[in-house]
Amino acid sequence: MKRVKGLFLLAIVLLLGFAVNVKADTCYFKFYTDASSNLKNGDVIELYAEYAGSGPDFYEIDLFYDSSVFELISAEFPDTMYRTEWENITEDYINTDNPGYIVAKIAGTHVGSAGLAPLKVKYSFRVQDTNYASSVISATSYGWLYEDGKSSCGSDEYTFIINDNSSSNNYLQSLTVYGVSSVDYQFDKDTLNYSGYVNYYTNSVYVEAVAESSGASISGLGYHELQVGDNNIDIVVTAEDGSQRTYTYKVYREQGDSDTTLSVMKVTGSDGKQVALGYDSKTKTFSGTVPANISSVDFEIKFYSNYAYLDIEASDFKEKVNTDGSPAYGEIATETLKDGENVFKFVVVPQTQEKVEYKIVLTKEAMQEQGTKPTEEPKSNEVNKMNVYLMTGIGVLALICVFLFIILLIQAKKKEDMVNRIIDNK
Fold first, then answer.
1. 34 and 121 share a domain?
2. Is the pLDDT of residue 394 over 90?
3. DSSP string, 137-153
């Protein structure tokens, strides 16, 4: 009987111990990273702490790192985390008394329910010092029981090798700018400023460059849109150690020609005669009158600027066709006229593409109706004028003749008187 009681008490003690151990020991912890173990200045790494369990009342994870080597960028905690005043933790989760020490706690009830996934903390660091050959980041997780204190759930650490031989070479090996019409330089890696120019029609250039160091990066490559005038293109080379060198290429884009002034504006009728035209500069309108017998006209339009051209598609003109049926590009076809007003609008495009519209207004006189006798009034007026001129001329000649006749009579009388005096004296 005593033996049975002893076995029964031993069983109870073992069961109680097992129950306590289950509550204290059923916690899970994992500390891991995908970052390379070889780092250099400026590198960013991420580490993760993952833990869960059903036994402890709450959990704690302690992270240690060298704050002179690693800069904490962020620590992302689950919403169920909480912090206490005795931990003396600032808002960025760093213990102000011990930089490089991060503490986080989570209530056990949040991870003890069945089916819940482990909770994860994400730490992000940036390497800020390359004077160290290596540096360690470690993490330890604990499960806390109010009555028994804490017991370890696990710990792990990572050692990172900090390379201090990052290249400082930030030179270019070559620099080419495609699309530039003329350049005034030969590339030299020690020369940082270059220049060239393009004509107005070139609105972009393409930049290509190669760095001396394979580990350096280059910004400013590819296509660059150009404005009229000066355009500065910066090509920045960043070495492995973060140092930079800037090459500047200044591209000058020429001003465009906006002149649309006409050097020739001729309208020739079907009779081969040129139509007299007037011009109103305010409305950019040419105007003229053609006789009724003119059935069609031809146009000749030229410009002072070598860049300006006639946009026939945007004008009221038709394009002339050659005898073989092919279009005579830029030439205007003969236009048939109707009685009355004929309006032709045409568009001139300068180099700057700012289109200007002109207008030609030709008024064709109306033909007389059949059966009507043409009025003779204009002809009669002409005849009358000529008669007046003729009669006036005849009158003037008659007066001159009379005047000459009188002079002759006077001279004859004088001669007669002279002869008579001579006779009398004898």
1. yes
2. no
3. EEEEEEEEETTTEEEEE
Residue 211 domain boundaries = 172-253
Half-sphere exposure of 311 (CA within 13 A, CB side): 16
The residues, ordered by sequence, that sit 6+ positions from 232 with a Cβ below 8 Å of its Cβ are: 248, 249, 250
Instruction: Judge whether 386 lies within some domain.
Output: no
* pLDDT tens sequence across 7-63: 444 444 333 343 333 334 466 778 889 888 888 778 898 988 887 766 556 667 778
- Edge-to-edge strands of the sheet including 44-53? 27-33, 44-53, 119-127, 70-76
Residue 294 DSSP class: -
Same domain, 178 and 133: no
Instruction: Tell me the C-alpha distance between 50 and 156, whole Å.
Output: 12
CA–CA distances in Å: residue 247 to residues 101, 218, 235 = 44, 10, 5
Residues 6+ apart with CB under 8 A from 259: 303, 304, 305, 307, 308, 350
The Cα–Cα gap between 418 and 13 comes to: 195
Q: Tokens 């700057």 map to which residue?
A: 352
Q: What is the pTM of this model?
A: 0.44
Rounded alpha-carbon distances, angstroms, from residue 133 to 42, 63, 130:
15, 21, 8
d(CA 120, CA 77): 7
- List beta partners, residue 120: 50
What CATH number should be reported for the domain holding residue 117? 2.60.40.680
Calculate the alpha carbon distances from 139 to 60, 96, 156, 293, 404 in Å.
10, 18, 6, 107, 146
> Which pLDDT value is given to residue 148?
61
- The pLDDT tens digits of the residues spanning 179-202 come to 997 666 689 999 999 999 999 989
Is residue 14 a contact partner of residue 26, using CB atoms and an 8 Å limit? no
Q: In 3-state terms, what secondary structure has residue 38?
A: strand
